[in-house]
Amino acid sequence: MKSRKLGISRIGKNARRLLGIDKKYISPSYTRAYPFFMSRGKGAYVWDVDGNRFLDFTSGIAVTSTGHSHPRVVKAIERQARKFLHMSGSDFYYDTEILLAEKLASITPGSKDKKVFFCNSGAEAVEAAMKLARYWTRRQYFIAFLGSFHGRTLGALSLTSSKYVQRSRFAPLTPGVIHVAYGDCHHCTYGLSYPQCDIACVSYIEDVIFRRYVAPEEVAAIFVEPILGEGGYIVPPREFHPRLKTLASKYGILFVADEIQSGMGRTGKMFAIEHWGVVPDVLTIAKGVASGMPLGATVAPSKIMNWKPGSHGSTFGGNPVSCAAALETIDLLEKGLVKNAAKMGDYIMKKLKPFEEKYRHIGRIGGLGLMIGIEIVRDKKSGKPAPELRDRIVEACFWKGLLILPCGPTSLRFVPPLVIGRHEADEALNIFEDVVREVESRRHRR
Ligand SMILES: Cc1ncc(COP(=O)(O)O)c(C=O)c1O
């Protein structure tokens, strides 16, 4: 691939000025990997406050599904904003929220006889699912997976176990969460190999947890990301979700698919769990649903979401402007962007896969559609994690004009908007390969 000249070597004066103020006033808990200061965006491109252009393969953490400021989404937002900005769906009625609920009930897997609870974020959608699961089952316990990310509010954080820093000093969390190993065949917790393992990570729940630790009749729900997101973009084997669902159904446990990152077309299907042919009992949505407007949703069959008025609510949840953006977003997804995610995902994967052989610091490359994870290792033989090297690669891509994000212990992710074409894909791949090449030659020379 063609070499690309370095984009910028230091941030400009406008960014420097903002950085000074940011350092003084913004919570230091945020995890910025490099100093990108957004000024505007269009499609897959963004510009910083000093006029530099970058290719955005982060989508603002998997949010801007239709690209930055898609003209149709912006129009829908403007239309709604002129009518009214807020009325609260918890106490009143308005069309955008009602029509969006009808739409979500029809595009999520399973029968259309569903109800939707609206909120503002992923963590809130997970909180609603946790409360609903306890309410419906009258059971207390939850099962979640090591490496998973479900949000940072105290309930959702109890399920999260991606990095200990996310939980550190926040205990005690919601009691009753049991963490088990995820279906990560490349780093099997039990040291087994697929398929000889016979999906031991799922059997363990029944054979060990349900025998020794908690009766299955006390478990309200299993929370699972169809593809591990923040935890490293790990695609479990084809038997994983169906076995998990069978186990859940056997004991009347709710199967909650957290589609906050993997949903809304990103993997080449509207929801990632469809790749496994599983119909979840509860499904959580946020991030890409409204192209950047804040919105979360918890979707469940009407039979399950039958809680009493007052049992859950939200002042801002289902904001009319966010709902208008979501209706337009879903229309764009249905009319081509989901298909494009599948097509462009294949295109990128075909070009990336050879990197596994070609470069010594590239480990496993995996993903579905435009949810692609690349593991960075010290060397291929040991396969040992190289988080510092990963961080250096992520930062070096930034200086060359490509925005990507880290994930998991030692991976980085490509999460572009679903509108990308070959041109953007090639540009990203060229920059990434340049950086990998430079890193490898520098380390080799030492
Ligand atoms: C799978 C998953 N669930 C939940 C969340 C939490 O979403 P939010 O940051 O909107 O609270 C995230 C965020 O990254 C996520 O990826």
Q: How would you describe the overall organization of this protein?
A:
The protein is α/β, with parallel strands linked by helices and 446 residues long. The chain has two domains: 13-69 and 353-445, Aspartate Aminotransferase, domain 1; 71-333, Type I PLP-dependent aspartate aminotransferase-like (Major domain) (Aspartate Aminotransferase, domain 2, 3-Layer(aba) Sandwich). It is 37% helix and 16% strand. It is built from twelve helices and 15 strands. It has helices spanning 13-25, 59-62, 71-83, 95-107, 122-137, 154-159, 200-213, 240-250, 320-352, 355-358, 387-399, 422-445; strands spanning 38-42, 45-48, 53-56, 114-119, 141-145, 177-180, 219-224, 254-258, 282-285, 296-301, 362-368, 371-376, 402-403, 405-407, 411-414. The strands form three sheets. A seven-stranded mixed β-sheet has the order 4-10-9-8-7-5-6, sandwiched between helices. Strands 1-2-3-13 form a four-stranded mixed β-sheet. β5, α6 and β6 (177-180) form a beta-alpha-beta unit. The longest helix has 33 residues, at 320-352. It is globular. The chain starts with 12 loop residues before the first helix and ends with a helix. Mean pLDDT is 96; it is low at 1-6. It binds pyridoxal-5'-phosphate. Pyridoxal-5'-phosphate (PLP) is lined by residues 121-123, 126, 149-151, 225, 229-230, 258, 260-261, 286.
